[in-house]
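Aim 2 progress update. The chain analyzed this quarter is reproduced below.
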Amino acid sequence: MAATAQRRNSSSLWMMFTASAVVTIALFFFPAFVIRPFAYQAPRALLWAMAIRQRAPMGALFTGLLCLGLALVIWRIVGIWGRIALSITMLLVAFSVVMAQMNYFEWMFHPMDIVRFEAPEQSPVEAGEMIMAVRFGSDARAYPISEMAYHHIVNDIVGGVPVVVTY
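Predicted structure tokens:
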């Protein structure tokens, strides 16, 4: 009878650990998977990803600490394979907690500080490609949308005036 109760208690600890680990990992990976450059972003999925991303730092910290506490309790009652599973899962949980605290989108969508310009006849821009243009006086620049879609921001000087071009 006592062995059955202990097994049931162990199973419920594993279920709580697994659920909190899945939530912690999802708080980082779901927004990172949905919000990607050059990938289709459905409006509803993007809305969910942004809402989750906003709450991820505190949520991941809370569920990560819950995972750690459960892992410490489970550690005492499992064998070597259980401890290996706990260790691997806790590595993923710790990684997710740390990444949820950072603004990793800045790494993906960083501004272009060094802009390279070419003469129109030497440019690899296709004839039908969309561009953004900025002109001050006699100085003009064209920024291909294909490049702007990734970086979103270009710092430049046009006609002696510092400009920030965004898309």
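The first strand starts at residue 131 and ends at 136. The mean pLDDT is 85. These observations will guide the mutagenesis experiments scheduled for the next reporting period.
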